[in-house]
Amino acid sequence: xxxxxxxxxxxxxxxxxxxxxxxxxxxxxxxxxxxxxxxxxxxxxxxxxxxxxxxxxxxxxxxxxxxxxxxxxxxxxxxxxxxxxxxxxxxxxxxxxxxxxxxxxxxxxxxxxxxxxxxxxxxxxxxxxxxxxxxxxxxxxxxxxxxxxxxxxxxxxxxxxxxxxxxxxxxxxxxxxxxxxxxxxxxxxxxxxxxxxxxxxxxxxxxxxxxxxxxxxxxxxxxxxxxxxxxxxxxxxxxxxxxxxxxxxxxxxxxxxxxxxxxxxxxxxxxxxxxxxxxxxxxxxxxxxxxxxxxxxxxxxxxxxxxxxxxxxxxxxxxxxxxxxxxxxxxxxxxxxxxxxxxxxxxxxxxxxxxxxxxxxxxxxxxxxxxxxxxxxxxxxxxxxxxxxxxxxxxxxxxxxxxxxxxxxxxxxxxxxxx
Length: 419
Known about the structure:
The chain is mainly alpha-helical. The chain has helices at residues 3-38, 43-50, 54-82, 84-103, 111-126, 128-137, 141-173, 175-193, 204-208, 213-221, 224-253, 258-283, 288-308, 313-325, 330-342, 347-376, 380-398. It has one domain (12-198, 211-398): MFS general substrate transporter like domains (Growth Hormone, Chain: A, Up-down Bundle). It is 80% helix and 0% strand. It is globular, with a radius of gyration of 21 Å.
């Protein structure tokens, strides 16, 4: 008779712990991604005030993205070994230091580049990589896709709030004051990280027969489906970072009011909440690899439609809503595939490897846009590159082999493939 209430109390305690983890993770991801996706608003005022070219500013954001990708597997491996809390706190402080340096980059040789490096490492820790692994281990397999979708959707609200707020601060107080506020917001992520801890438990087979990290990485890199998904993820970063970095400048060239760009970024965040949650739900029922492929295809088709129509405030907001719906829907799908095919023991590391491809794409998306504008005075070549890369990603992802690798006498947390 006493076992029932005790068991119920323990379950309630676990549920409360998971709920706290989900809420705090959503807040941290919202702040991290909202800050990152709003940095394009600073391009025009900073280049004019500092006397640097669009390519120089674009390179600093490109460096942020490539450092994010390079450091993600290592940051993920540290989180796999030591838990999420110390990694989150340390990288949040690095993020804040990078934005602070960016605000005072005028007096620091190479300040923009160093700032890009610091914010890149900061984003690797406070973005999706570490927190998604923590959430995945705390969630039953049958609810994993939906739960990651919910947290990623909540995280999307950061752009909806921070982009308009950032534009308002720039207009009212100047870009430097706005950047200082952003640095303070980045630092607050360290405080939100203090209550976070690892809740997941390894399976008995994982405890008895843990797979070495090096073997897990070799196994994944020899898996054709993993390679296809990794290559396709390049397009995600290439398209999205090009848009967040260069859409504000492109709209000004087209004669669209500056405030529309901030509204567009905010609209991306709003519709992202709906799309990310929906793809998380769909990923629990339908083929995750095909859903990923459709996201790449639809993004590309919306880009084509946007360019074919006259560029106006109305068409820009419609385009932003459509892209926002498809923005982070990849997160629960990629998470689901990695966890299902390779297990969760080294999830953060394997996710980091896939995400590195995303960030290589982000690097070239940000930098290429600046180079194209400086060379031709327009973004025509850049938009064309987005279309070509998107169609290639659709093909690779659709053809992905998502069968688990040959078993080595252990389950490793993997579950049967989705239909």
